[in-house]
Design goal:
Elements: E1 3-10, H1 14-26, E2 30-34, H2 41-44, H3 77-91, E3 95-97, E4 101-106, E5 111-115, E6 118-127, E7 134-135, E8 149-152, E9 166-170, H4 174-185, E10 190-193, E11 203-204, E12 207-208, H5 209-215, H6 250-255, E13 259-261, E14 264-268, E15 271-274, H7 278-302, E16 326-328, H8 329-332, E17 334-339, E18 343-344, E19 373-375, H9 392-419
Helix pairs in contact: 1-9
Amino acid sequence: MLNQIDTIIVGGGQAGLSTSYYLKKQGREHIIFEKAHQPAQVWRNRWDSFTLITPNWMIRLPGASYSGDKPDDFMSRDALVQYFEAYIEEYQLPVRYGVTVNSVEYLGDGYLVRTSEGDYKALNLVVACGLHQKPKVPPFSCNLPSNIHQLHSSQYKNPESLPPGAVLVVGSAQSGSQIAEELYQNGRKVYLSVSTAGRFPRRYRGKDANYWMEKMGYFARTVNGLKSPKDKFAPSAHGTGKDGGHTINLHQFAKDAVMLLGHVQNVKDGKIHLAPDLKENLARADQFEQNFTREVDAYIESEEQNIPEETLPKLTDGYNVDEILVMDIQQAGITSVIWATGYAFDFSWINIPVFDQDGYPIQDCGISRFPGLYFVGMTFLCTGISGLLAGVSKDARHIAITIQEQSWLRSYQHNHHAVL
């Protein structure tokens, strides 16, 4: 038997919940299918000391913007889980846990949604499962010796969970840089394969970097403002909110005896082969920070704000590191490898031609060319913060209003046709 429902939301994270909030205010029949068995599973999977890298004042789910007395602090993993649990409970959002959506087809007058608990027909389908769907690990990881403990950054919990010995962290964006820092500050020998991620100062001229980014319009940027559409997949800049937040600088890592490496190209016969791009990647991060601070300086001057000037420390320790092209795993004492290499997305379960060559949805601010098919919670659907706690509410509201308008239009056309 085919279950009929007005709207199905796939994914019970911040995007799905925000959309549900607005649909419930409309009184619209809908359901959220979430494959996890409990709320906030993505956040539960983070490491023990994880915090958001955006300040509390950027937590803006609809009906639950941060209102505490620590707006400039950074919410911990456990507090974030509690926030989501309370949100679902307060607004009684219709989340059905442990349900996997296996396939979706367009029927012309709605969508056939096949799930692990039966088949549904929905007039509207909102895809809200984000882009961080599957941990991404390079295929040559299988060439590592069998005695090496390897895991993706999404599986890392704490230094004590790793076997004794040195750790190679592959990737230096947000997760990789934070995990590497925690490991070496807990006495581990750490090798860090440096990626192309940039560096923001945690604070500059008295304010968090996010404050300046919002003021300068960073968060309002659309995909059309990027140099290339692929830039929407660029690695996230170094940052941390741990212990009140501070700047992560890889030159400081080198000063603290972390062995910085170029990016890993291959693993073969017990050896790790590295690209000679360490200095280039360090220079890119330095330039990223310099460009940002210049923009802030120019903004402050243009606004005629009386804010004291600031000169950030200029560290260069990483440039003194010898480039290593081949490293023997056993000689280096490496017993663990953490792949902080990001995530892949996979929409192959949606059997509708609505994706570009990168597999990214073809849409306009989340609205596809197929009537009733929408996307929420992905970077640069509308703006650069479309997928974040700070920006998903605006996108979700836009989709909910569109669903309402399209429903009115269908009702009008149906009634008008009946009269004729």
